[in-house]
Amino acid sequence: MASTIVPFNKRPQKKICLFDVDLTLSLPRQAAKPEMMTLLAQLREKMTIGFVGGSDFAKISGQLASDGSNVLDKFDFGFAENGLTAYRLGEPLESQSFIKFVGEERYKPLVNFILHYIADLEIPIKRGTFLEFRNGMINVSPIGRNATIQERKDFNAYDKIHGVREKFVQVLQAKFHDYGLKFSIGGEISFDVFPHGWDKTYCLRHIANEGFEEIHFFGDKTQKGGNDYEIYSDERTIGHSVKDPEDTMRQLKELFFS
């Protein structure tokens, strides 16, 4: 695949655009609209593009390549789990392991505490898959990742009022302060747990030597505590805060197509 792609330094603009996935390129756990993918393909003719999501690669693929095609054919860089699983022109780059960092003996008390906390949590509904183990992090969802799209929306609205995830994170920060972990709220129903420095800025090390003049990042959770905040505010990037995929397309057109 890589041989058919124009080299980065031969494209009209020596820039790269990195995109969060949920609420930036698509609605949570839903497929990106065809007009979004068309616009990204047009942008790729001008500069380098990549996605950087907190979810695992399979989930991101389902959103950005719902037609069964290879998502890595649509982007120059693919960063799942904040870049802990990474691809350049379809080829895998070095990955990292959460369990190796934490260690089994410290991991088990963390998981046990999380599950006990959720068991005692009083919220309107609970579904299933409250904790998801990924290569570079764990994802914690008080309602459970098996919630339907409508249940996700309902929980998100409830969470904005009651701060369920924010309070959960505060408890974990106090209890496991010596673990060297970051707790980052993202999406509608969950938060990620990963080592300090393994937020979305981790992906920047994979593009550091590519010679880009500008690194643009687009994301929705750009407020402090959100899982886009670190890369959005990083001095190496030009951050763009978006409200939803429609806003992403609007900003892209204004910035690069006007």
Account of the 3D structure:
The protein has helices at 34-44, 57-64, 98-102, 104-120, 149-162, 164-175, 229-233, 245-256; strands at 15-19, 48-52, 77-80, 85-88, 91-92, 131-133, 138-140, 181-186, 190-195, 214-219, 238-241. With 258 residues, the chain is an alpha/beta fold. The strands form 2 sheets. The chain has a 7-stranded mixed sheet with strand order 5-4-3-2-1-10-11. The protein has a 4-stranded antiparallel sheet with strand order 6-7-9-8. The two termini are 30 Å apart.
Order of strands, widest sheet: 5-4-3-2-1-10-11
What is the CA-based Rg, rounded?
Answer: 18 Å
Helical percent range?
A: 25-40%
What's the helix-strand series? EHEHEEEHHEEHHEEEHEH
Helices and strands in order, then pairings?
Layout lengths: L14 E5 L14 H11 L3 E5 L4 H8 L12 E4 L4 E4 L2 E2 L5 H5 L1 H17 L10 E3 L4 E3 L8 H14 L1 H12 L5 E6 L3 E6 L18 E6 L9 H5 L4 E4 L3 H12 L2
Parallel strand pairs: 1-2, 1-10, 2-3, 10-11
Antiparallel strand pairs: 3-4, 4-5, 6-7, 7-9, 8-9
